[in-house]
Protein 1
Amino acid sequence: MTNPAQDGPRAPDTPSTGPSHEGTGTQPGQRQLSADGDGLLAMVKNLSRYHREHEKYYSEAPLADAIALQHAARTLIALAERWTCGEAAAEPAPSPFAGAPDLNDDRAIETSGVLFMEGAGEPAEITRIKSQLQAIAADSEQTGSWLAAAMQASWGMAEALLSYPQLAAASSVLTHENERRWRIFHERVEQITRPD
């Protein structure tokens, strides 16, 4: 009896020592699709189930980051536009809580609550935007590193799945669909960045 946790695919030229596969549509060296007695298939079944649910989360999560980035960008653009044409006030306001007319922009106040006050330092909202952008950047870098390591580790398992011809067609379809999605995405990026 084999240990399912150690059971992996045999090399194609290794003769099968298990039960006959006559009438099952598989050749020697190929495997029956049964997750119950095959450790590799059990692992793949687990991955396909939970990673599918994981993809549902990641189909929405980047949108939240995109909205946050757009929000921050609108605020910073509004301030940059104001600062290119603003003029320093001749005299400071009598109250330290008065808005600084040379620094403030109505859009930045409305969008993110950024309000520069006379004699005060950086608004808390700017500090929050900086922290938010740093957190998104650090999270993206960490996620990217993890995905790169996971993809590298998955090549060995993908190669082992070649002994299951029933899964080969599905693997090639997934690769083809991903290639098409990346190609379309790349074409759209090129359209956006193409000079008029």
Protein 2
Amino acid sequence: MTKDIIVTKKAAEKILEMSKEEKKENFGLKLFVFPGGCSGLQYGMDFEEKASKDDLIFEQHKVKIFVEKNLIEHLKGTKIDYVETEQGSGFKIDNPNTTNSCSSCTGC
């Protein structure tokens, strides 16, 4: 089931670094999904001490990801990466289940 959510090695390294900085080394990363944005979805992430009873747990590269069971159909194959460019750095979430409906959307 780990192929439902894919965490790249670079993203995992950054997540582990951030969890250490925030003194949350044993926490998991909860992936949230909100309606909105060019693709129809926006994403958020936060450290959670433990998964809720409604969460599925995925683990890759020593990182635990928590996702609500009812969202997994919308997130199958989603890849979480960490990118660094001249414009800045941050997490990039690539969800193959959504399509970009804006012709001039940047940062979606």
Protein 3
Amino acid sequence: MATAVLVVILAWGLAGLMHWWPRLPPIWRLRISLATSAAGVGFLIAGVDAEGLREAATRSVLVVGPATLTATASASASLHYYVLTAVCLLLGFAGLVFGEPLSRFLAPRVVTSATLVAWLVTVIRFLLEKSAAPEVLTQAVGVTLMAPVAGALFAAARRSRGGGSLRDLVRPLWAYAYLVRGFVVLVGLVATHLHLGSHYDVSPFVRVPVALTGRTYLFESGSLAQVFWLVLLPQLAVWPLFTVATGLLGGSLVLRLAGTTRRRIPPDVPSEPLPSGGEG
């Protein structure tokens, strides 16, 4: 239970930081970029000091199959630190050098901004899983838990432009859901075809028991049927529904808080005009 709470807190913290970065004041963008670069240096030092090999579980949640299947990734104990070093230094450098033009481009384009964050996170998670990073980290760096944060961002952007209903969030959330899950499908297809491992690779799952029907379905590794049932169907039919639903939850929270804050602000009371004339 404690691990799950830690994963959610870490995921929402990272997602909030990455989603809201273009909308922050310049001084805060600068500070975050410097802190990110410093974190990269810290991970580099930790990687140099790490020795030996690491093994980490890679968990795959299959919508049409069992809840969790586990494989094992093995890599140098320093490798995931070097992955984090590269990610932090690249993001920090981009923020320091291109922060202003990036902010001007991304801040008004919230769907594009959130989608690019999700694509980046997908690549980072794949690299972390291949480098046998701790499971808490790989679970936190993923697109599933980012949906409420994306919905909150869309709601905040609508409020700033005068909008303010959940209905306004449905279309951008559907667009976001399919752009994100379409990229996950692409990664899954490549990982499965090339047997690259990670939870995106479904090629090892040739026997999939389904509790709902009580049957076990057999797949040929890398076959079209396996890809359809374990990659295409979940990512393009099931997870978009989850993304929109949880995105609306995040958006509704922002809209509710905004409405509460607005009601608490007292209306302007017009001052009475001063009496004209003087004494006497």
